Fold each of these.
Amino acid sequence: MSVSAAIDFGFYSDRVRITPLVLLNILMTNGWMVLDGEYKCYLPLGDVDNFDWQRSKIINDKELIEICERKFYNKEIVGLVVTWKDTNIGGELLFFLDGRVSFLLTINRIENAATKLTDFQWYLEKIIPAFLNNDIYIESIECSHMI
């Protein structure tokens, strides 16, 4: 059986203008890497909801950030694959135009051994403190696990 799991976030801040680049920078300086094995995966410019993920071994973080900036200013969904440190645990991070952020837990999803349900606590403990320490607060969190 296939499992689909995701965490959807809503953020707010009185001090910081929240953009995908701000959120991505916070994640990248707090243990998350834009990496899927040996590839960097991202939604290309002009993708317009096709979700035609690109994989590259040669693109660097600066080039990825530039693509994200252009997608944001072109009002496109920004998408990157991120993993936690050297664990190869993570998934697709999507920044939507309405400010909502979805983290699709597709890479080596952590589950509770007893229940076989997604261990959302593992992910939240690695995401929430990074944002709170940067004056970005959680307005809403929705965790979903579907079989």
Amino acid sequence: MKTELYHQLVTLIHATYTWVDVMDASAEETFSFHTGGSFYPVQSRVLCLVAKWSNYNYPKGHCWRIPEFMLDNAIRTLSQNASFRKRCRKEQLLYTDAEAIIKEASFGHIILELEK
């Protein structure tokens, strides 16, 4: 993921959050991928989100860690929509785009409910 796009996503979430905010956007972790019968370590940025208030089944303080490769996969999936792809290329995401990216990257578990 482009650094500018990543920072724009983080800024959008932080500026328009209702119950989930960005806790850390600079964390990195090592993940292992299995391919060809072997495991390979990959270093990746991790977006850390925190629940500021209880909502749904998540208590206040609940943390989620979303690896950058999951955000990339979400963007790739959402890029099938031409208008989203155009905004992504121009690095002009809307808050609704940020919601969609996080929802897709978290397999529908995190619904940000951002407000403009």
Amino acid sequence: MRLIAFRPEYQITAEPSRNRIFYKHFAETAEAQELPEYLHDWQQALDAMKPGFTILSDMTELDDVSGTLGQLFQQVQQRLEGLGLRMIATVHAPGNSHAFEAETPELPRRIFTDLWEADKFLDELAAEA
């Protein structure tokens, strides 16, 4: 596993052997006005992947972001299109309705409330390929 970024607002790790990116938002993201390294960090993680990669996204500490950051997150999602993304397993805290509304329907995504179940789902999906 390769640590790409460990910042106060988020962490990105790439695991080429599993063809998976692990992403975690921290609560500090809600307070951030900008994330200057965010796009670069994501690009580094994407460069380590092959087509058919998956993303495990832990959003349990965050339920909403500012409009400025929302645009930044949208830019990352646009980069994902056409790169061979197989699936995103997004983990939210139970009862977090704001986060569910923010999901983009264009990307293949499944929502979970348990990190272990999401990781297992992605492993099973990879085994089918």
Amino acid sequence: MNRIIRMNKPYFIFLLWNVLMIFVVHGLTFQHEAGRGVSGNGNPGILILFPSLLTLLILCIWTVSLSKRWLYDQRQRWGEKMHVMVPLVAVLLCVLSVFLELHMIENLRTQLGGFTNDPSSAVYRFGWLNQYTNTLFYNVPILLFGLSLSIFIGWLLERSVHKIGS
């Protein structure tokens, strides 16, 4: 058991790093206030957004690998019925994260008065990636979706290896 904790310590540190990057992207994204705006000449959040998405990709690949190995080790202990709960929970978390993301998009649309094609919007003609919308591209629902999908893929890979080995 101690070996598992030591083995996963770098993973958990990397996971915390990704959560920290969500806060950094959020902190560098401007919040629109009615009647006030920024010049549109700078987007400091974009400096952290792309490295954050890269670390998310690495975390997801790492999660697939760890979940596949962990599920393989747990197969005998849990039994088949309990083993089916993992993909079920992962899919439910994926669906939940999609609803949370859609809710965030709607809240931001309301706050900005529309999006890039609406003349009354604060981001009219800015493009989708701007100083007000960085948080749409990296946030908690996206991290949750990526990790849940990665666990589901790990389960599929473990399942296919188990069927081939049987």
